[in-house]
Design brief:
Oligomer: single chain
CATH class of the domain at 29-93: Mainly Beta
Radius of gyration: 14 Å
Number of strands: 5
CATH topology of the domain at 29-93: SH3 type barrels
Largest sheet: 5 strands, mixed, barrel
Order of helices and strands: HEEEEEH
Distance between the termini: 34 Å
Amino acid sequence: MVPSVPSVDAEDSERVGDRARAGQDPKRYAIQPGDRVVVEEHSRAAEAYLEAVALGPAKAGSSFNVRLKIGGKVVRAVAIAPGSAALIPAMEGKR
Protein backbone atom coordinates (compact mmCIF):
# COMPACT_ATOMS: atom_id res chain seq x y z
CA MET A 1 0.00 0.00 0.00
CA VAL A 2 1.45 3.35 -1.01
CA PRO A 3 0.70 6.20 1.42
CA SER A 4 -0.84 9.35 0.12
CA VAL A 5 1.35 12.43 0.00
CA PRO A 6 -0.17 15.42 1.77
CA SER A 7 -1.95 17.65 -0.71
CA VAL A 8 -1.75 21.41 -0.73
CA ASP A 9 -4.91 22.87 0.71
CA ALA A 10 -6.11 26.46 0.98
CA GLU A 11 -4.26 26.96 4.28
CA ASP A 12 -0.93 25.89 2.72
CA SER A 13 -1.38 28.11 -0.32
CA GLU A 14 -2.15 31.05 1.97
CA ARG A 15 1.12 30.43 3.85
CA VAL A 16 3.05 30.48 0.56
CA GLY A 17 1.37 33.76 -0.33
CA ASP A 18 2.26 35.19 3.09
CA ARG A 19 5.94 34.26 2.60
CA ALA A 20 5.98 35.92 -0.83
CA ARG A 21 4.44 39.09 0.61
CA ALA A 22 6.98 39.04 3.48
CA GLY A 23 9.86 39.25 1.00
CA GLN A 24 10.81 35.55 1.09
CA ASP A 25 11.01 33.62 -2.15
CA PRO A 26 8.72 30.61 -1.57
CA LYS A 27 10.45 28.74 -4.41
CA ARG A 28 13.90 29.09 -2.86
CA TYR A 29 13.35 26.18 -0.46
CA ALA A 30 11.64 22.86 -1.14
CA ILE A 31 10.50 22.74 2.49
CA GLN A 32 9.66 25.59 4.86
CA PRO A 33 9.38 25.53 8.68
CA GLY A 34 5.93 24.25 9.67
CA ASP A 35 5.37 22.33 6.43
CA ARG A 36 3.88 18.86 6.71
CA VAL A 37 6.39 16.30 5.46
CA VAL A 38 6.28 12.56 4.76
CA VAL A 39 9.59 11.11 5.94
CA GLU A 40 10.58 7.85 4.24
CA GLU A 41 12.83 5.17 5.69
CA HIS A 42 13.92 2.23 3.58
CA SER A 43 15.90 -0.61 5.15
CA ARG A 44 16.36 -4.32 4.60
CA ALA A 45 13.87 -5.01 7.38
CA ALA A 46 11.10 -2.57 6.53
CA GLU A 47 9.85 0.43 4.62
CA ALA A 48 8.26 3.20 6.66
CA TYR A 49 6.46 6.42 5.78
CA LEU A 50 6.15 8.76 8.77
CA GLU A 51 4.26 12.04 9.09
CA ALA A 52 6.31 14.93 10.45
CA VAL A 53 6.50 18.71 10.66
CA ALA A 54 9.55 20.58 9.35
CA LEU A 55 11.38 22.59 11.99
CA GLY A 56 13.51 24.53 9.51
CA PRO A 57 13.81 25.31 5.80
CA ALA A 58 15.57 22.96 3.39
CA LYS A 59 16.53 22.91 -0.26
CA ALA A 60 16.27 19.60 -2.11
CA GLY A 61 19.26 17.48 -1.07
CA SER A 62 19.98 19.34 2.17
CA SER A 63 19.38 18.05 5.69
CA PHE A 64 17.03 19.57 8.24
CA ASN A 65 15.21 18.69 11.47
CA VAL A 66 11.66 17.33 11.57
CA ARG A 67 9.39 16.50 14.50
CA LEU A 68 7.61 13.17 14.04
CA LYS A 69 3.87 13.29 14.65
CA ILE A 70 4.03 9.91 16.38
CA GLY A 71 6.05 10.30 19.58
CA GLY A 72 7.20 13.87 18.92
CA LYS A 73 10.85 12.88 18.47
CA VAL A 74 13.08 15.29 16.52
CA VAL A 75 15.13 13.55 13.81
CA ARG A 76 17.31 14.60 10.86
CA ALA A 77 16.05 14.14 7.33
CA VAL A 78 17.14 15.03 3.79
CA ALA A 79 14.71 17.02 1.66
CA ILE A 80 13.69 15.22 -1.53
CA ALA A 81 10.92 17.48 -2.80
CA PRO A 82 8.17 19.67 -1.31
CA GLY A 83 6.41 17.52 1.30
CA SER A 84 8.87 14.63 0.98
CA ALA A 85 12.08 13.72 2.83
CA ALA A 86 14.25 10.71 3.65
CA LEU A 87 15.24 9.81 7.19
CA ILE A 88 18.96 10.06 7.98
CA PRO A 89 20.07 7.01 9.99
CA ALA A 90 20.97 7.95 13.59
CA MET A 91 24.71 7.26 13.12
CA GLU A 92 24.93 9.56 10.07
CA GLY A 93 22.86 12.32 11.69
CA LYS A 94 25.40 12.80 14.53
CA ARG A 95 28.29 13.94 12.32
